[in-house]
Amino acid sequence: MNPELERYFNVYFDLFNTEGWEQLTEEFESNGKVINSLEATKDTNDMYFRKGQLNVISHLINLESSVEQAYEEAKEDLSDD
Predict the structure, then answer these.
(1) Which domain holds residue 55?
(2) pTM of this prediction?
(3) Considering only CA atoms, which of 32, 50, 33 is closest in space to residue 41?
(4) Overall domain count for the chain
(5) I need a labelling partner for 14 at 20 to 30 A (CA). Which of 6, 48, 55, 64 fits?
(6) Are the CB atoms for 1 and 56 separated by under 8 Å?
């Protein structure tokens, strides 16, 4: 793996190993449950806004597993060469 790509993954892995990351993802999970309520939706525009919020929250919550998967794929590509 080239040094730039290795640094990219290491920076993320360092981030994921912090208490701050754990706290942030827990807060997003909690907020996602509140935002995902149809009862609190005022109108169609609000529903689409909430949908966008949930999309961003989902991306952040799943970022760790996405990066880990990309790392494993990058390692596999190296072993194939």
Answers:
(1) 3-80
(2) 0.82
(3) 50
(4) 1
(5) 55
(6) no
